[in-house]
Amino acid sequence: MGFLGLQILAILVIFASPSSPAAIPKPDCPDHCGNVTIPFPFGTSPDCYLYDEFFVNCSNSFNPPKAFLTNSEIEITNISVINGTLTVLQTIGFDCYGPNQTNRNCWRNWF
Questions:
Q1: Residue 62 and residue 32 in contact, taking contact as beta carbons nearer than 8 Å
Q2: Could you report how far apart the first and last alpha carbons of the chain are, in Å?
């Protein structure tokens, strides 16, 4: 399991911990980023998330805006408090070979 996997696992362990505070939104905190619902303990602005690991970067550079995990390029597509899940789109790499059998990197979005 790579660093990303451990980071997401750590977030989910904290998120699912029975000692975590109840999922109650704080006043005046945005609860959406584009089409993604952002429930507490996650949040898009200071004092709206429980820990730094729960920060969601809502980028208004897209239409509709897109939610990203902390300050990364990992796009969040869903957060479920009930299921204790956070769904992301992550780019993966694999080996591709050109016409002359040379290895080159190819990137595809993982859906």
A1: no
A2: 19
